[in-house]
Amino acid sequence: MRGATRARWAVGTVVLAMAATACGGGDDPAAEGRNGGHISVRLSEPQHGLIGQNTGESEGAEVLHALFTGLVAYDDKTSEPKLAVAESIETTDSKTWTVKLKDGYTFHNGEKVDAQSFVRAWNWGANQENNAEAMGFFSKIEGSDELAPGKGKTPTAKELKGLKIVDSKTFVVTLKAPFSQFKTMLGYNAFYPLPKAFEADPQKFGEAPIGNGPFQMDGRWEHNKQIKVKKYAKYPSDGRAKLDGVTFKIYDNLDTAYADLQAGKLQIVDKLPVNALPTVSQEFGERYIYKPEASIGYIGLPLEANREAFGKPEVRKAISMAIDRDAIAKSIFHGTRKPADDFISPIVPGYRKGALGEAGLFNPVKARELFERAGGIPGNKMELGYDADGDNKEWIEAVAGQLKTNLGIEVTPKPFPKIGDMLDELKAQNFEGAFRTGWAMDYPAAEDYLRPVFSKEAIANGSNYGHYKSDEFEAALAAADRSTDPADSTKLYQKADDIVIRDLPYIPVFTYMSAAAYTKAVTHVEVDAQGRMDLANVQIT
After folding, report:
1. Do residues 272 and 319 make contact, with C-beta atoms less than 8 angstroms apart?
2. Average model confidence (pLDDT) for the chain?
3. Which residue has the higher pLDDT, 29 or 539?
4. What are the residue boundaries of the Solute-binding protein family domain, all occurrences included (predicted)?
5. 254: three-class secondary structure by DSSP
6. pLDDT tens for residues 165-210?
7. β-bridge partners, 228
């Protein structure tokens, strides 16, 4: 959830089903498939033009994942970065990184993917005059301050001085300071390459992008109707698409999409409506995918806007201990969300089972004692904000009821019409109540669950809506950044995690699960940790 203009929110659409009967899909050894053919899949309308540097939401990222290939991809099992377009990414100090590219990758217009393709894209994304959503991702590179000096100021450079092209296959990235997770970060769509054609008209490009991935555009984006892609025959053979084409059919209603899946008008639906929960696994059997996702749901606390109520860590811990996470997961989400026990997702390296310790365990008696000993909150009243355009009302009301029962305080749920309305109020510090928030990872690293949500820089360019500030936390992050050993770096990020666990600026409540269903017409269907379909490997049965 990083960048200058918006955040990647786990907005709370329920895409889950009954855990007791769930199973993984797409890897049935008996399933057979054949190459060729066309399928249709569900999509919502992307927010912006299809440019990696200006996409911070899941729908646009889904299409970009089919159209582009980055320097690295992520292992399906471990979430570790693995080389894709990059032949090597090397550093000796975590500050200066040398990137060498593989041969064989071309853009869909035949242009070779070279070092300039990446430098071109990153310079555009880093320039504040382009107002790209991913601008903040380039802030670690030398020269970013000149390209993005801040509101009311004009850039004094046109290129990042920390990017140097050595030859057509090699470029060097110099960061402002060591950052051990830089290689892992490079799989995010902000770092996708762009061809020369992009420079002529970026807005026009976003309507029919020329990528370097296994699929290419098949015509232009038909807004609010569909986006069609077709197999790119010159993609490297080991990752070439099996299908001839895919139509992303655009829906504004999950119920309608699910009905079309049941009728065979769609072959894959990657988000399921609430009314599908009781029967989806029985109806689709092994063609129902249910697996952990890398998102976490929190109760956020306005530490600066309402210090009187939430300024004491003992009060925050008492609130955390008064929430029955297991009951919410079972009764509200039918067992399909899991109680959170760390600020880091269970599917990301660095997660520790039970890391929240006592704060993550339901103990209403001790919670009440701690709360009263700390002096409670003024008037024993608080508001609990949430976005009404997501499926959050029921669980927020459940939390409100638990806090009333277990702490003796009146909690008034406050719906905001849209997520943006609540974010605006939180940024301006006009709302003094607790609030529903969530986090969907940008890339699979422990750091991505810490800095973008709790650092000082995340107050202006991230998701630190409670305005949490800790010099100790900042120092721990910096120490982890400087490490050149991945295992050591993870341990150091865990120390930063421990500080957040102690301070509890947000209260982790549950981790999300992703779900998808597909018809008998297709096989080899998989969904990654970021909720994206692996369309290149899908086959017709």
Report:
1. no
2. 91
3. 539
4. 81-458
5. helix
6. 999 999 999 999 999 899 999 999 999 999 999 999 999 999 999 9
7. 247
Cβ atoms of residues 336 and 19 within 8 Å: yes
Q: How far apart are CA 38 and CA 92, in angstroms?
A: 46
Distance in Å from the first CA to the final CA of the chain: 38
Quick one: which H or E segment has residue 289?
Answer: strand 288-300
DSSP letter at 337? S
Summarised one tens digit per residue, pLDDT across range 207-239 is: 999 999 999 999 999 999 999 999 999 999 999
Q: pLDDT for 466-484, tens place per residue?
A: 999 999 999 999 999 888 8
Over range 92-97, report the average pLDDT: 93
Q: What is the pTM of this model?
A: 0.82
The answer for 273, left when phi > 0, alpha when psi is -120 to 50, beta otherwise, is beta
Tokens describing residue 6: 């918006």
Give the Cα separation of 445 and 182 in Å (integer): 10
Cα–Cα distance for residue pair 284/493, rounded to 1 Å = 41
- Per DSSP, the chain holds a count of helices (H) and strands (E) of 18, 19
Contact in structure between 519 and 264 (CB atoms under 8 Å): yes
Give CA–CA dist 14/464, Å, rounded. 24
User: For residues 307 and 467, is the Cβ–Cβ distance under 8 A?
Assistant: no
CA 104/CA 515 separation, integer angstroms: 34
Q: Cβ contacts of residue 452 below 8 Å, gap of 6+?
A: 1, 2, 7, 439, 442, 458, 462, 463
pLDDT at 19: 36
Sign of torsion over alpha carbons 321, 322, 325, 330: positive
- Token pair of 245, please? 């084409």
Tell me which H or E stretch contains 296.
strand 288-300
